[in-house]
From TrEMBL:
It comes from the Archaea. Residues 1-180 form the KARI N-terminal Rossmann domain. It catalyses: (2R,3R)-2,3-dihydroxy-3-methylpentanoate + NADP(+) = (S)-2-ethyl-2-hydroxy-3-oxobutanoate + NADPH + H(+); (2R)-2,3-dihydroxy-3-methylbutanoate + NADP(+) = (2S)-2-acetolactate + NADPH + H(+). NADP(+) binds at residues 24-27, 47, 51, 132. GO terms for molecular function: ketol-acid reductoisomerase activity; magnesium ion binding; NADP binding. Binds 2 magnesium ions per subunit. Belongs to the ketol-acid reductoisomerase family. This is Ketol-acid reductoisomerase (NADP(+)). The active site is at 106. Its cofactor is Mg(2+). Gene3D superfamilies: 6.10.240.10, NAD(P)-binding Rossmann-like Domain (3.40.50.720). Pathway: Amino-acid biosynthesis; L-valine biosynthesis; L-valine from pyruvate: step 2/4; Amino-acid biosynthesis; L-isoleucine biosynthesis; L-isoleucine from 2-oxobutanoate: step 2/4. Keywords: Amino-acid biosynthesis, Branched-chain amino acid biosynthesis, Magnesium, Metal-binding, NADP, Oxidoreductase.
Amino acid sequence: MRKYPVTDNDIGLIAGKCVAILGYGSQGRAQAGNLRDSGVNVIIGNRPGKSFDQAVSDGFSVMSVQNAVMRSDILAVFFPDESAAEIYAEDIAPSLKEGQCLVFAHGFNIHFGFITPPEYTDVVLVAPKGVGPMVRKLYQEGSGVPALVSVHQDHTGRALNTALGFAAGIGSARSAVLASTFRDETETDLFGEQAVICGGLPALISAAYDTLVDAGYPPELAFSECAHEVKLVVDLIYEGGFAKMHDFVSKTAGYGGITRGGRVIGEDSRKEMTTILNEIRSGEFADEWMAEKRSGSKTYTGLVEQVKKSDIETTGKTFRDLLK
């Protein structure tokens, strides 16, 4: 991947511009704070509610989405994937002006065609690879999270510079600003969430926990071995890859893992991963998720409630209490 030679000084690429943060959730709040601390003129556009009130409490100039669009040069869209298209159509699109730049933190709505900005605007991606609180925390500590940058539409001829300046403003220049595309960012992000981070890993942990409990082992011990200790190993992988993991775990653990892991994630699992990726690439998952939103998210809400009431959740709370 190409790394842009961006530094904090490249905040100058958006000097004198008014940036509207549209949507004051986890990412919106973090990036608004970073941009303000970088000297950028930031306003907040949000619908009334808790997020609106939070932005006021944080000391920002807060207004309706429509007013923020009319007053700004750069519009950073942070509404949830499943809500962004509706809010865009109702509150953003009618007030867009020629030469404005739309910044997206995730390519979902642009890539799958739920949002189609007019040709007289710039459209860019600045996707920090970290959750909002981490984006803010690392910035305040003097570092930053890496970000992926892409240009979808360049009406003014300055779209890339705007994206790079924005990335510098949120602190990503202190880490790495990497060239990508809306397609690659969207599809790999969704796949990573589904196959590993939010899907495959929790499913693997739960299955391993159930296996030990069903075999008669204490639930708290099963939770410790299959869930709690995951962070210790993930931190090693994060810092230095699988090689560092093998440098630090016991040889018994390393040998057992390297000779048995492929039996857990075997050919059937790999085929299913390909199926999941194909569902993402074809747009099938995106359509399914948007249909779920239109139906009131009843299926999703029910599944989350099942997770919250599961045995492993109860055991996890008990185990964490034991450590206090």
